[in-house]
Design goal:
alpha+beta; 60s Ribosomal Protein L30, Chain: A; 16-stranded antiparallel sheet; cell outer membrane; OmpA-like_sf; OmpA-like
């Protein structure tokens, strides 16, 4: 009997010990699970917080720019007068107004020969290597043999008077073009084809307006101010400046000393920001164009890289897609069967980097247009920094050189 009770007691103790050990394991497992869940929750919360912070930072910045960074004032590019549009062109300037109304995009007729784009000449082409006079019906030509001369074409409504140094005046009553320029590039220019008006002195100060895209630019000795729709940018000589967008409510004030204050609604923050660069200037006027003018055989659409891409990137910005959609529609409706897209950069960075970037950007535009139903044969070229259209010594020049050109044969 005692033996039986002893065995039962030992068995009970064994079961109890086993139960205690099992309980400890269960508690340990539950604790580990809780810790893992807590760590996962913390990681998720940290990720959510980081996403919220990034979204907030993005909301407090100009799209494609860092918080506190003010975009460059877009460079003003004037159309060439020494080239005339072909009346039989498949795509005319009138059909491209929706595109050219976007700031940063220009559309001009050009002549392409031997892989070179001829935008018009400023070399006098009157007479035959000497002075002389010519009159035939509505056409009157007189040249002094040194680049100076007069040209009147009553049928076309064109009057040109040009001095040896390129100063003079150009009037086209039918197209609504008038140019008066001094030998230092100062003068006035009006072009109803593009809604452009410019008055500028020899220091690049003056007033530019474009009624087609709603852009107004004023420049004086101390500052340049740019307005396009609800966006206004001001840059001052001391490196300070401001940006405001009445639609989004975003405002940026750069103090020119390394800080920028960003405001949007009730949100306000101060961030590090480099002073703005060299004060940009309005373009001086070129020489009075040559006569007779070249006749275009292509249309050149130039897109400022800042319109399409973020800095050093080649992904199409969401804001640029609508512009490329309009281009795709234009190409499709005109039944264009082949055209070329060329990428260009400024001289910053090394040659290999710029070459690759220019190729990637040209291909990115090509691939996007194909997704929008463009079936034409598209050739792409990247030229890097090898084909500048302006000096790389100034911010305005570098901005003009960072571009994508779309060359469309029109005849």
């Amino acid at each position: 009997m005692k033996k039986t009770m002893l065995c039962a007691t030992v068995l009970a103790l064994s079961v109890a010990a086993t139960g205690c050990a099992s309980g400890k394991k269960t508690e340990s497992s539950a604790a580990s699970t809780a810790a893992a869940q807590s760590e996962a929750a913390s990681t998720q919360a940290a990720g959510t917080a980081a996403e919220t912070t990034a979204a907030a930072a993005s909301d407090m910045a100009v799209p494609g720019y860092a918080p506190g960074q003010i975009p460059e004032i877009p460079a003003i590019v004037l159309p060439e007068l020494g080239i005339s549009e072909n009346p039989a062109a498949k795509i005319t300037l009138d059909k491209t107004k929706a595109l050219s109304s976007v700031p940063g995009i220009t559309v001009t007729p050009v002549r392409v020969e031997n892989d070179q784009i001829q935008r018009g000449s400023t070399v006098m082409q009157l007479g035959s290597n000497g002075e002389g006079q010519y009159k035939d019906g509505n056409l009157t030509v007189q040249t002094d043999g040194n680049g100076a001369g007069q040209y009147v074409d009553a049928e076309r409504g064109i009057t040109i008077q040009r001095d040896e140094d390129g100063a003079g005046q150009y009037l086209d009553s039918k197209l609504g073009i008038s140019l008066q320029v001094d030998d230092d590039g100062a003068g006035s220019y009006k072009d109803d084809r593009y809604g452009i008006s410019l008055m500028v002195d020899d220091d690049g100060e003056g007033l530019y307006t474009n009624t087609q895209n709603g852009v107004t630019v004023t420049a004086d000795d101390d500052a340049m101010s740019y307005r396009a729709g609800k966006v206004q940018i001001t840059q001052k000589k001391d490196g300070s400046g401001s940006y405001s967008d009445a639609e989004s409510g975003l405002k940026i004030e750069n103090d020119g000393k390394g800080k920028a204050t960003v405001t949007k609604g009730t949100q306000k923050t101060t961030v590090d920001a480099a002073p703005l660069g060299t004060l940009p200037r309005l373009p001086r006027l070129g020489a009075v164009p040559a006569v007779p003018s070249l006749e275009a055989n292509s249309l050149l659409i130039t897109l400022d890289s800042g319109v399409l891409f973020d800095v050093d990137k080649y992904d199409i910005r969401p804001e640029a897609q609508e512009t490329l959609n309009q281009l795709a529609k234009l190409l499709t409706e005109a039944e264009i069967t082949a055209f070329e897209i060329d990428g260009h950069t400024d001289s910053n960075a090394d040659d290999v980097y710029n070459q690759t970037l220019s190729e990637n950007r040209a291909n990115a535009v090509k691939e996007y247009l194909k997704t929008q139903g463009v079936t034409a044969e598209i050739t792409t070229q990247g030229y890097g920094e090898s084909r500048p259209v302006a000096t790389n010594e100034t911010a305005e020049g570098r901005q003009q050189n960072r571009r994508v050109e779309i060359i469309i044969p029109t005849v």
